[in-house]
Amino acid sequence: xxxxxxxxxxxxxxxxxxxxxxxxxxxxxxxxxxxxxxxxxxxxxxxxxxxxxxxxxxxxxxxxxxxxxxxxxxxxxxxxxxxxxxxxxxxxxxxxxxxxxxxxxxxxxxxxxxxxxxxxxxxxxxxxxxxxxxxxxxxxxxxxxxxxxxxxxxxxxxxxxx
Length: 162
Description:
162 residues, 3-stranded antiparallel beta sheet
């Protein structure tokens, strides 16, 4: 598929341009996440499980409280997701080094394998889109997405880069 021939108008803040951006964001996200839905369904898991697996893989030994803040979901919802992942031997916990009450999360070998296969499906889609768009467009895309994140949350997102 060729790169889009549509350029943003110099009047890119008009309603039609904003709506186009929202629609592209919605449909782009829907298509990329659908690429892993089948793999998740085979495991009896959903997108919330995938988000937890992804972020735990990015930061092994992440405290539960950090994952809760990243996902911005309730403790109850996260508890259900983590319990299911632990029951399936995809995630394990250990006590913190300094605070034994702290629970640190890590993927098991099976969890690493599943997360890796899901990531590969997402990587294929995103790298193909990046290749079509080019470096400048990717930089602009990142700038727009970063602009959607509140200032007080940027450090948390940047912290994932390691």
